[in-house]
Protein backbone atom coordinates (compact mmCIF):
# COMPACT_ATOMS: atom_id res chain seq x y z
CA UNK A 1 0.00 0.00 0.00
CA UNK A 2 1.45 3.35 -1.06
CA UNK A 3 0.66 6.63 0.68
CA UNK A 4 1.02 10.31 -0.08
CA UNK A 5 3.31 12.63 1.90
CA UNK A 6 0.53 13.17 4.45
CA UNK A 7 -0.05 9.45 5.06
CA UNK A 8 -3.24 8.99 3.00
CA UNK A 9 -3.58 5.66 1.15
CA UNK A 10 -3.13 5.99 -2.63
CA UNK A 11 -4.16 3.65 -5.39
CA UNK A 12 -0.95 3.87 -7.41
CA UNK A 13 1.32 1.33 -9.01
CA UNK A 14 4.65 2.47 -7.58
CA UNK A 15 6.46 4.64 -5.07
CA UNK A 16 7.57 6.77 -8.03
CA UNK A 17 3.93 7.50 -8.86
CA UNK A 18 3.16 8.36 -5.23
CA UNK A 19 5.98 10.92 -5.20
CA UNK A 20 4.75 12.30 -8.54
CA UNK A 21 1.34 12.80 -6.91
CA UNK A 22 2.97 14.70 -4.03
CA UNK A 23 4.84 16.88 -6.51
CA UNK A 24 1.60 17.69 -8.36
CA UNK A 25 -0.25 18.50 -5.13
CA UNK A 26 2.57 20.79 -4.02
CA UNK A 27 2.41 22.63 -7.36
CA UNK A 28 -1.34 23.11 -6.95
CA UNK A 29 -1.09 24.34 -3.37
CA UNK A 30 1.85 26.66 -4.01
CA UNK A 31 0.38 28.20 -7.20
CA UNK A 32 3.26 27.06 -9.39
CA UNK A 33 3.17 27.82 -13.09
CA UNK A 34 4.16 24.23 -13.87
CA UNK A 35 1.36 22.62 -11.82
CA UNK A 36 -0.24 21.30 -15.00
CA UNK A 37 3.02 19.76 -16.15
CA UNK A 38 3.46 18.15 -12.74
CA UNK A 39 0.01 16.61 -13.03
CA UNK A 40 0.81 15.35 -16.52
CA UNK A 41 3.98 13.73 -15.15
CA UNK A 42 1.91 12.00 -12.43
CA UNK A 43 -0.60 10.65 -14.96
CA UNK A 44 2.25 9.51 -17.19
CA UNK A 45 3.93 7.76 -14.26
CA UNK A 46 0.70 5.88 -13.53
CA UNK A 47 -2.22 6.23 -15.98
CA UNK A 48 -4.28 3.91 -13.75
CA UNK A 49 -4.11 6.19 -10.69
CA UNK A 50 -7.68 7.45 -10.12
CA UNK A 51 -6.62 10.66 -8.37
CA UNK A 52 -4.66 11.68 -11.45
CA UNK A 53 -7.91 11.84 -13.40
CA UNK A 54 -9.74 13.47 -10.48
CA UNK A 55 -7.08 16.18 -10.37
CA UNK A 56 -7.26 16.65 -14.14
CA UNK A 57 -11.02 17.16 -13.90
CA UNK A 58 -10.64 19.46 -10.91
CA UNK A 59 -8.00 21.58 -12.66
CA UNK A 60 -10.45 22.06 -15.54
CA UNK A 61 -13.18 23.12 -13.14
CA UNK A 62 -10.89 25.58 -11.35
CA UNK A 63 -10.86 27.73 -14.49
CA UNK A 64 -14.61 28.52 -14.27
CA UNK A 65 -14.84 28.14 -18.04
CA UNK A 66 -17.92 26.46 -19.52
CA UNK A 67 -15.81 25.33 -22.47
CA UNK A 68 -13.82 23.05 -20.16
CA UNK A 69 -16.80 21.19 -18.68
CA UNK A 70 -16.48 18.45 -21.28
CA UNK A 71 -12.83 17.95 -20.43
CA UNK A 72 -13.69 17.71 -16.72
CA UNK A 73 -16.46 15.19 -17.41
CA UNK A 74 -14.12 13.11 -19.54
CA UNK A 75 -11.53 12.97 -16.78
CA UNK A 76 -14.21 11.99 -14.26
CA UNK A 77 -15.40 9.15 -16.50
CA UNK A 78 -11.83 7.85 -16.74
CA UNK A 79 -11.46 8.01 -12.96
CA UNK A 80 -14.72 6.15 -12.38
CA UNK A 81 -13.53 3.29 -14.60
CA UNK A 82 -10.41 2.72 -12.46
CA UNK A 83 -9.98 0.71 -9.24
CA UNK A 84 -10.06 3.09 -6.27
CA UNK A 85 -10.33 3.12 -2.50
CA UNK A 86 -13.25 4.65 -0.62
CA UNK A 87 -11.58 8.05 -0.16
CA UNK A 88 -10.76 8.28 -3.86
CA UNK A 89 -14.33 7.34 -4.79
CA UNK A 90 -15.57 10.13 -2.53
CA UNK A 91 -13.35 12.52 -4.48
CA UNK A 92 -15.08 11.34 -7.65
CA UNK A 93 -18.48 12.03 -6.06
CA UNK A 94 -17.40 15.57 -5.17
CA UNK A 95 -16.10 16.23 -8.67
CA UNK A 96 -19.30 14.83 -10.17
CA UNK A 97 -21.42 17.23 -8.10
CA UNK A 98 -19.21 20.14 -9.09
CA UNK A 99 -19.48 19.32 -12.79
CA UNK A 100 -23.25 18.89 -12.47
CA UNK A 101 -23.57 22.46 -11.23
CA UNK A 102 -24.19 21.64 -7.57
CA UNK A 103 -20.99 22.81 -5.87
CA UNK A 104 -22.82 22.99 -2.54
CA UNK A 105 -23.03 19.17 -2.67
CA UNK A 106 -19.33 19.00 -3.50
CA UNK A 107 -18.57 21.07 -0.38
CA UNK A 108 -20.44 18.55 1.77
CA UNK A 109 -18.54 15.62 0.25
CA UNK A 110 -15.17 17.30 0.75
CA UNK A 111 -16.14 18.07 4.35
CA UNK A 112 -16.90 14.40 4.91
CA UNK A 113 -13.58 13.37 3.35
CA UNK A 114 -11.68 15.76 5.57
CA UNK A 115 -13.60 14.65 8.67
CA UNK A 116 -12.27 11.13 8.07
CA UNK A 117 -8.90 12.13 6.57
CA UNK A 118 -7.87 15.52 8.05
CA UNK A 119 -4.61 15.49 6.08
CA UNK A 120 -6.26 15.11 2.69
CA UNK A 121 -4.87 18.27 1.09
CA UNK A 122 -6.71 17.87 -2.20
CA UNK A 123 -10.16 17.76 -0.56
CA UNK A 124 -9.21 20.50 1.89
CA UNK A 125 -7.90 22.90 -0.75
CA UNK A 126 -10.71 22.34 -3.26
CA UNK A 127 -13.21 23.01 -0.45
CA UNK A 128 -11.34 26.21 0.47
CA UNK A 129 -11.53 27.37 -3.15
CA UNK A 130 -15.19 26.59 -3.77
CA UNK A 131 -16.42 27.84 -0.39
CA UNK A 132 -14.72 31.15 -1.09
CA UNK A 133 -16.27 31.56 -4.53
CA UNK A 134 -19.67 30.63 -3.12
CA UNK A 135 -19.48 33.38 -0.51
CA UNK A 136 -19.16 30.96 2.42
CA UNK A 137 -16.03 32.00 4.36
CA UNK A 138 -17.50 30.62 7.58
CA UNK A 139 -17.21 27.13 6.07
CA UNK A 140 -13.58 27.84 5.23
CA UNK A 141 -12.88 28.73 8.86
CA UNK A 142 -14.80 25.76 10.25
CA UNK A 143 -12.86 23.29 8.11
CA UNK A 144 -9.41 24.74 8.72
CA UNK A 145 -9.92 24.82 12.48
CA UNK A 146 -11.25 21.28 12.35
CA UNK A 147 -8.05 19.98 10.73
CA UNK A 148 -5.48 22.07 12.63
CA UNK A 149 -4.96 19.51 15.46
CA UNK A 150 -3.86 16.94 12.86
CA UNK A 151 -1.08 19.18 11.55
CA UNK A 152 2.31 20.39 12.74
CA UNK A 153 5.39 21.97 11.22
CA UNK A 154 6.80 18.46 10.85
CA UNK A 155 4.06 17.51 8.36
CA UNK A 156 4.57 18.12 4.63
CA UNK A 157 2.14 20.78 3.46
CA UNK A 158 1.68 22.45 6.86
CA UNK A 159 2.52 25.88 5.42
CA UNK A 160 -0.30 25.60 2.91
CA UNK A 161 -2.78 24.82 5.69
CA UNK A 162 -1.53 27.90 7.57
CA UNK A 163 -1.95 30.00 4.43
CA UNK A 164 -5.57 28.86 4.14
CA UNK A 165 -6.09 29.54 7.84
CA UNK A 166 -4.84 33.07 7.22
CA UNK A 167 -7.22 33.81 4.38
CA UNK A 168 -10.24 32.14 5.98
CA UNK A 169 -9.87 34.17 9.17
CA UNK A 170 -9.19 37.38 7.25
CA UNK A 171 -12.45 36.96 5.35
CA UNK A 172 -14.35 36.51 8.63
CA UNK A 173 -12.68 39.51 10.30
CA UNK A 174 -10.31 37.70 12.68
CA UNK A 175 -7.34 39.73 11.55
CA UNK A 176 -4.92 38.87 14.36
CA UNK A 177 -5.29 35.12 13.88
CA UNK A 178 -5.08 35.61 10.13
CA UNK A 179 -1.91 37.69 10.17
CA UNK A 180 -0.07 35.35 12.53
CA UNK A 181 -0.98 32.31 10.41
CA UNK A 182 0.05 34.00 7.18
CA UNK A 183 3.35 35.28 8.52
CA UNK A 184 4.12 31.83 9.98
CA UNK A 185 3.48 30.28 6.56
CA UNK A 186 5.77 32.79 4.86
CA UNK A 187 8.46 32.08 7.46
CA UNK A 188 8.32 28.45 6.32
CA UNK A 189 8.41 29.40 2.62
CA UNK A 190 8.98 32.98 1.46
CA UNK A 191 7.65 31.98 -1.96
CA UNK A 192 4.23 30.94 -0.61
CA UNK A 193 1.95 33.06 -2.78
CA UNK A 194 -1.29 32.18 -0.99
CA UNK A 195 0.15 33.15 2.38
CA UNK A 196 1.57 36.40 0.98
CA UNK A 197 -1.86 37.07 -0.51
CA UNK A 198 -3.67 36.43 2.78
CA UNK A 199 -1.48 38.85 4.73
CA UNK A 200 -1.89 41.45 1.96
CA UNK A 201 -5.65 41.20 2.53
CA UNK A 202 -5.21 41.80 6.25
CA UNK A 203 -3.10 44.89 5.59
CA UNK A 204 -5.67 46.12 3.05
CA UNK A 205 -8.59 45.69 5.44
CA UNK A 206 -6.74 47.45 8.26
CA UNK A 207 -5.62 50.37 6.11
CA UNK A 208 -1.92 49.58 6.52
CA UNK A 209 -1.02 50.72 3.04
CA UNK A 210 2.68 51.52 3.50
CA UNK A 211 3.19 48.16 5.18
CA UNK A 212 1.33 46.48 2.36
CA UNK A 213 3.60 47.97 -0.27
CA UNK A 214 6.67 46.96 1.73
CA UNK A 215 5.28 43.44 2.26
CA UNK A 216 4.83 42.81 -1.46
CA UNK A 217 8.14 44.42 -2.44
CA UNK A 218 10.04 42.30 0.09
CA UNK A 219 8.49 39.01 -1.05
CA UNK A 220 8.34 39.56 -4.81
CA UNK A 221 11.94 38.32 -5.43
CA UNK A 222 10.79 34.89 -4.19
CA UNK A 223 7.99 34.47 -6.73
CA UNK A 224 9.90 32.99 -9.66
CA UNK A 225 7.93 30.11 -11.12
CA UNK A 226 4.61 31.30 -9.70
CA UNK A 227 1.40 31.35 -11.71
CA UNK A 228 -1.06 34.15 -12.31
CA UNK A 229 -1.74 34.60 -8.59
CA UNK A 230 1.24 36.95 -8.90
CA UNK A 231 -1.02 39.18 -11.02
CA UNK A 232 -3.48 39.32 -8.15
CA UNK A 233 -0.73 40.25 -5.70
CA UNK A 234 0.30 43.07 -8.01
CA UNK A 235 -3.37 44.07 -8.08
CA UNK A 236 -3.15 44.34 -4.29
CA UNK A 237 -0.07 46.49 -4.71
CA UNK A 238 -2.10 48.74 -7.02
CA UNK A 239 -4.91 48.84 -4.44
CA UNK A 240 -2.48 50.16 -1.83
CA UNK A 241 -1.24 52.76 -4.32
CA UNK A 242 -4.78 53.80 -5.18
CA UNK A 243 -5.53 54.43 -1.52
CA UNK A 244 -2.48 56.71 -1.47
CA UNK A 245 -3.91 58.35 -4.63
CA UNK A 246 -0.87 57.35 -6.68
CA UNK A 247 -2.99 56.73 -9.76
CA UNK A 248 -0.05 57.00 -12.16
CA UNK A 249 1.60 54.19 -10.20
CA UNK A 250 -1.57 52.12 -10.51
CA UNK A 251 -1.58 52.47 -14.29
CA UNK A 252 2.11 51.57 -14.46
CA UNK A 253 1.39 48.37 -12.54
CA UNK A 254 -1.55 47.64 -14.81
CA UNK A 255 0.60 47.99 -17.91
CA UNK A 256 3.75 46.27 -16.66
CA UNK A 257 2.54 43.74 -14.10
CA UNK A 258 -1.00 42.48 -13.66
CA UNK A 259 -2.15 43.13 -17.25
CA UNK A 260 1.30 43.59 -18.83
CA UNK A 261 0.14 45.67 -21.78
CA UNK A 262 3.73 46.50 -22.73
CA UNK A 263 4.26 42.93 -23.90
CA UNK A 264 2.63 41.48 -27.01
CA UNK A 265 1.94 38.42 -24.85
CA UNK A 266 -0.97 40.21 -23.19
CA UNK A 267 -2.96 39.96 -26.40
CA UNK A 268 -2.96 36.18 -26.06
CA UNK A 269 -3.67 36.12 -22.33
CA UNK A 270 -6.43 33.71 -21.42
CA UNK A 271 -9.62 35.27 -20.11
CA UNK A 272 -9.16 33.62 -16.72
CA UNK A 273 -11.75 34.90 -14.27
CA UNK A 274 -9.34 36.26 -11.64
CA UNK A 275 -7.25 38.17 -14.21
CA UNK A 276 -10.41 39.69 -15.67
CA UNK A 277 -11.61 40.68 -12.21
CA UNK A 278 -8.24 42.28 -11.42
CA UNK A 279 -8.17 44.32 -14.60
CA UNK A 280 -11.80 45.35 -14.91
CA UNK A 281 -12.28 46.32 -11.28
CA UNK A 282 -9.11 48.42 -11.25
CA UNK A 283 -10.03 50.31 -14.42
CA UNK A 284 -13.53 50.84 -13.05
CA UNK A 285 -12.22 52.19 -9.74
CA UNK A 286 -9.94 54.58 -11.58
CA UNK A 287 -12.79 55.86 -13.75
CA UNK A 288 -14.90 56.47 -10.66
CA UNK A 289 -12.12 58.80 -9.52
CA UNK A 290 -12.10 60.59 -12.88
CA UNK A 291 -8.88 59.00 -14.14
CA UNK A 292 -8.68 58.47 -17.91
CA UNK A 293 -7.70 54.88 -18.76
CA UNK A 294 -7.35 55.23 -22.53
CA UNK A 295 -8.04 52.18 -24.68
CA UNK A 296 -7.36 49.66 -21.92
CA UNK A 297 -10.96 48.44 -21.90
CA UNK A 298 -10.89 47.16 -25.48
CA UNK A 299 -9.05 43.87 -25.06
CA UNK A 300 -11.17 43.07 -22.01
CA UNK A 301 -14.34 43.84 -23.94
CA UNK A 302 -13.28 41.49 -26.75
CA UNK A 303 -12.88 38.69 -24.25
CA UNK A 304 -16.11 39.58 -22.46
CA UNK A 305 -18.14 39.45 -25.67
CA UNK A 306 -16.68 36.02 -26.47
CA UNK A 307 -17.79 34.70 -23.07
CA UNK A 308 -21.43 35.84 -23.15
CA UNK A 309 -23.55 33.04 -21.71
CA UNK A 310 -20.75 31.52 -19.62
CA UNK A 311 -22.13 32.07 -16.13
CA UNK A 312 -20.08 29.56 -14.11
CA UNK A 313 -18.35 32.37 -12.22
CA UNK A 314 -21.06 34.54 -10.71
CA UNK A 315 -18.69 37.24 -9.50
CA UNK A 316 -17.11 37.66 -12.93
CA UNK A 317 -20.44 38.65 -14.54
CA UNK A 318 -20.47 42.31 -13.42
CA UNK A 319 -16.77 42.55 -14.35
CA UNK A 320 -17.47 41.40 -17.90
CA UNK A 321 -20.22 44.02 -18.01
CA UNK A 322 -17.80 46.75 -16.87
CA UNK A 323 -15.74 46.10 -19.99
CA UNK A 324 -18.71 45.91 -22.36
CA UNK A 325 -20.35 49.04 -20.97
CA UNK A 326 -17.15 51.09 -20.81
CA UNK A 327 -16.33 50.27 -24.44
CA UNK A 328 -19.83 51.19 -25.63
CA UNK A 329 -20.84 47.69 -26.69
CA UNK A 330 -24.52 48.08 -25.88
CA UNK A 331 -25.73 45.25 -28.09
CA UNK A 332 -23.29 42.85 -26.49
CA UNK A 333 -24.27 44.13 -23.04
CA UNK A 334 -27.93 43.48 -23.81
CA UNK A 335 -27.12 39.95 -25.02
CA UNK A 336 -25.14 39.30 -21.88
CA UNK A 337 -28.03 40.34 -19.66
CA UNK A 338 -30.42 38.13 -21.62
CA UNK A 339 -28.11 35.14 -21.24
CA UNK A 340 -27.72 35.85 -17.53
CA UNK A 341 -31.49 36.08 -17.10
CA UNK A 342 -31.87 32.70 -18.80
CA UNK A 343 -29.26 31.09 -16.55
CA UNK A 344 -30.88 32.61 -13.46
CA UNK A 345 -34.22 30.90 -14.14
CA UNK A 346 -33.01 27.53 -12.90
CA UNK A 347 -33.76 26.01 -9.53
CA UNK A 348 -30.19 25.26 -8.49
CA UNK A 349 -28.15 26.93 -5.75
CA UNK A 350 -26.01 28.61 -8.43
CA UNK A 351 -29.04 29.84 -10.38
CA UNK A 352 -30.37 31.48 -7.22
CA UNK A 353 -27.04 33.28 -6.73
CA UNK A 354 -27.22 34.51 -10.32
CA UNK A 355 -30.81 35.67 -9.84
CA UNK A 356 -30.41 37.31 -6.42
CA UNK A 357 -26.93 38.81 -6.75
CA UNK A 358 -25.19 38.54 -10.13
CA UNK A 359 -28.11 39.80 -12.21
CA UNK A 360 -28.82 42.97 -10.21
CA UNK A 361 -25.10 43.75 -9.89
CA UNK A 362 -24.53 43.28 -13.62
CA UNK A 363 -27.60 45.35 -14.55
CA UNK A 364 -26.42 48.07 -12.19
CA UNK A 365 -23.05 48.25 -13.94
CA UNK A 366 -24.77 48.71 -17.31
CA UNK A 367 -27.13 51.37 -15.96
CA UNK A 368 -24.29 53.19 -14.22
CA UNK A 369 -22.45 53.52 -17.54
CA UNK A 370 -25.57 55.15 -19.01
CA UNK A 371 -25.85 57.61 -16.12
CA UNK A 372 -29.16 56.14 -14.92
CA UNK A 373 -28.23 56.46 -11.28
CA UNK A 374 -31.71 56.36 -9.76
CA UNK A 375 -32.24 53.01 -11.42
CA UNK A 376 -28.88 51.76 -10.18
CA UNK A 377 -29.97 52.51 -6.63
CA UNK A 378 -33.38 50.94 -7.16
CA UNK A 379 -31.83 47.71 -8.43
CA UNK A 380 -28.86 47.44 -6.07
CA UNK A 381 -30.41 48.49 -2.77
CA UNK A 382 -32.55 45.34 -2.30
CA UNK A 383 -29.64 43.15 -3.46
CA UNK A 384 -26.94 44.55 -1.16
CA UNK A 385 -27.45 41.84 1.43
CA UNK A 386 -26.96 39.14 -1.21
CA UNK A 387 -23.83 40.44 -2.93
CA UNK A 388 -21.53 38.40 -0.67
CA UNK A 389 -23.00 35.26 -2.23
CA UNK A 390 -21.19 36.10 -5.46
CA UNK A 391 -17.92 35.10 -3.81
CA UNK A 392 -14.85 37.27 -3.91
CA UNK A 393 -13.08 38.89 -1.00
CA UNK A 394 -14.16 41.98 0.90
CA UNK A 395 -11.49 43.90 -1.03
CA UNK A 396 -12.86 42.66 -4.35
CA UNK A 397 -16.53 43.12 -3.43
CA UNK A 398 -15.80 46.71 -2.50
CA UNK A 399 -16.11 47.81 -6.14
CA UNK A 400 -19.81 46.88 -6.17
CA UNK A 401 -20.39 48.92 -3.02
CA UNK A 402 -18.62 51.85 -4.70
CA UNK A 403 -21.04 51.68 -7.62
CA UNK A 404 -23.94 52.04 -5.19
CA UNK A 405 -22.49 54.97 -3.26
CA UNK A 406 -21.44 56.74 -6.47
CA UNK A 407 -24.91 56.47 -7.97
CA UNK A 408 -26.53 57.46 -4.69
CA UNK A 409 -24.47 60.65 -4.59
CA UNK A 410 -25.08 61.47 -8.25
CA UNK A 411 -28.81 60.85 -7.87
CA UNK A 412 -28.97 63.01 -4.75
CA UNK A 413 -30.23 60.08 -2.67
CA UNK A 414 -28.73 60.85 0.71
CA UNK A 415 -30.49 57.98 2.46
CA UNK A 416 -28.91 55.49 0.06
CA UNK A 417 -25.51 57.17 0.37
CA UNK A 418 -25.83 56.94 4.15
CA UNK A 419 -26.69 53.25 3.86
CA UNK A 420 -23.61 52.66 1.70
CA UNK A 421 -21.36 54.46 4.17
CA UNK A 422 -22.80 52.54 7.11
CA UNK A 423 -22.14 49.28 5.27
CA UNK A 424 -18.58 50.36 4.47
CA UNK A 425 -17.97 51.29 8.10
CA UNK A 426 -19.29 47.92 9.28
CA UNK A 427 -17.13 45.88 6.90
CA UNK A 428 -13.76 47.43 7.65
CA UNK A 429 -12.07 48.99 10.69
CA UNK A 430 -10.88 51.75 8.34
CA UNK A 431 -13.38 54.65 8.38
CA UNK A 432 -15.00 55.45 5.02
CA UNK A 433 -13.38 58.90 5.14
CA UNK A 434 -9.98 57.16 4.87
CA UNK A 435 -10.98 54.99 1.89
CA UNK A 436 -10.62 56.50 -1.55
CA UNK A 437 -13.87 55.06 -2.88
CA UNK A 438 -16.01 56.48 -0.06
CA UNK A 439 -14.16 59.58 1.15
CA UNK A 440 -16.09 62.14 -0.92
CA UNK A 441 -19.43 60.74 0.20
CA UNK A 442 -18.25 60.60 3.81
CA UNK A 443 -17.44 64.31 3.72
CA UNK A 444 -20.85 65.18 2.27
CA UNK A 445 -23.21 62.90 4.20
CA UNK A 446 -23.64 62.43 7.93
CA UNK A 447 -23.74 58.75 8.85
Automatic annotation (TrEMBL):
Keyword annotations: Repeat, TPR repeat
Signal peptide span: none
InterPro entries the record matches: TPR-like_helical_dom_sf, TTC38
Record family assignment: Belongs to the TTC38 family.
Protein name: Tetratricopeptide repeat protein 38
Amino acid sequence: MYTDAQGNALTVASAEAARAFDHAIEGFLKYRFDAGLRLKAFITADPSAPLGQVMAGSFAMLAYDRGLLGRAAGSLAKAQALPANAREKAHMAALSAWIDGTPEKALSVWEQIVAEHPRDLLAFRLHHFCAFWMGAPERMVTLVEQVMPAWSDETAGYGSVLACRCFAHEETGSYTIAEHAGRDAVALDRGDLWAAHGVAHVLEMQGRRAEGLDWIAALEPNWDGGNNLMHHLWWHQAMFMAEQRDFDGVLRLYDTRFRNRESKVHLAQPDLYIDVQNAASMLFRLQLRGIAVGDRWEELAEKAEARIGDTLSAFTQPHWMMALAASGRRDAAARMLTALEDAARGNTHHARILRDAALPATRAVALHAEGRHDEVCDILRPALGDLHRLGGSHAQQDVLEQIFVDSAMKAGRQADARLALERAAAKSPVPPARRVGFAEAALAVAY
